[in-house]
Amino acid sequence: MTSLLSGPTRPARTAPEPPTDVAHRRPLVLLALLGGVAAAAGPLVVCLGVGVAGWFLSDAGAHGAPRDGLRAGAYAWLMGHGSGLTIAGVTISAIPLGITVICAWAVWRIAHRVGDSVSGHGPDADAIADGVRDWTVPAATALFTAAYVAVAVVTLRVLSADSVPVSGTRVVVWSLLLCVVVGGASIAIGAGRAAIWTAFLPLSVRAAATVCLKVVSTFLLVSAAMFLVALAVDLGAALNVMSELHSDVGEASLYAGLALVVLPNAALCAGSYLLGPGFAVGTATIASPTAVVLGPVPAFPLLAALPDDGAPSSWMALLLLVPPVVAAYAAARVHRLYPTTRWEEGAVRGCAGGILAGLVVGGLSALAGGSVGPGRMQDVGPFAAQVTLHAVVALGLGALVGSLLATWSYRRYVRRQAAL
């Protein structure tokens, strides 16, 4: 609620007025529960619909029944929550992060609306600043999470009769993390509490957090762009793979849909490639700017973006400069929001934000891999530990340099303004 926003300096105390905006004092319990159900059911219904469409496109409904498509869609939704599954003794543990991103987006949007609708509950900004306990955001987050987890548990229960085992524990844990981290933050922002709480944090902490978010988002965008460029360069190979599969329009549509849901995984693999350690596409394989050792790979169109097997060209090592340059650019952009003329303050903001960004990138890279099939395909994805180490160093140094350059530029600007 906009009326709850306050700056770092507190205004003069006035007698609180009774709330008159009914739109921001709606029933908290009911809205939070309905919001959690909607956030879980929305992507689930989409997955169910796509599953039925895929069942029909595969063979025009000649085999099986629509419930098979519904079952496939439900399993896809669960896999987006880290469930994994085992089919014919083959374990698939990789997470289709495209589905996870869709679920996170739904949680964010609906949780934000819940927070805005209940923002009139609890004490006002002055009372919160005086230390009055405010349970609006924790209560709404807890109810929202409980409803979301309930939908996940019901889905697991419905599929429990199938012979395809999934990890219910991982689904519940993922649902809890998704709702508490993403949903809780969105509710706090929608309710205006986040602005109140962060207003009393030190400026350097807020600036470092902003640097982290900017570095991570910019680096992921650059990684996705690099993957798309690599795929476009070898687009002919991707089309050749599709032709060799002898797929019709329906099957080609299914391949395209599968490619979309693993696009974030591919972008994170591209990011690990830029950072240096690279990633594996099977046991005892590596794809990095300094070494490429690949064996036979599945006939999947996105794999056409892989580099050629053998020693890479010497200029490929220049790609290792991309992450620090991206971090420097992102940190310099943030400096426009939080300008400073103090060298030590600029250094702390950049270094702390870059290191934190490296840890976030490393954590995300750990989610991008796993087992995708039998044999060699049990080891696919970035080398998470090495990626984290390289990301902390590259992004931390890059953000430090970018902040120092921005500080130097701002100091020059201040001196010129003073000389006028």
Approximate helicity band: 55-70%
The strand count comes to: 6
Count of DSSP helices? 14
First-to-last CA distance: 43 Å
Structural class designation: mainly alpha
Low confidence ranges: 1-20
Q: Strand fraction band?
A: under 5%
Principal-axes geometry comes out as flat
Over the alpha carbons, how many angstroms does the gyration radius reach? 25 Å
Largest sheet composition: 2 strands, antiparallel
Mean pLDDT, rounded to whole units? 85
Oligomer: single chain
Question: What characteristics describe this protein?
Answer:
mainly alpha; disordered N terminus; 64% helix; two-stranded antiparallel sheet; flat; 420 residues; single chain
Give structural notes.
The N terminus is likely disordered. Strand 1 and strand 2 form a beta hairpin. A two-stranded antiparallel ribbon has the order 1-2. The protein has a two-stranded antiparallel sheet with strand order 3-6. The protein is mainly alpha-helical and 420 residues long. The chain has two domains: 181 residues, no CATH class; 213 residues, no CATH class.
